[in-house]
Amino acid sequence: MKVKVIFIFSFLALFAILILQNSTVVSLKFFFWKVEMSLIILIPITILLGIIIGFILAKVMDGEVKTKEKDPHPSARPTPPWP
User: Is 60 helix (H, G, I), strand (E, B) or coil?
Assistant: First the structure.
């Protein structure tokens, strides 16, 4: 447990250093949309979007795997002894 806590705090410290060193203003162009913002704001937003998209895709793919694992022939299962 102690190693896990140290790893989490180390990761958070590196993340904070990364954000604080990238304070320049950048221009983001997406199709016809253009926004100027600081990298301090852009980096956490993109990381958060990546986590959300990854979580959603993991749930969708997990659901597809579970539906494929269902018994294709439910009538081949043994019937229970009770009526």
Answer: helix
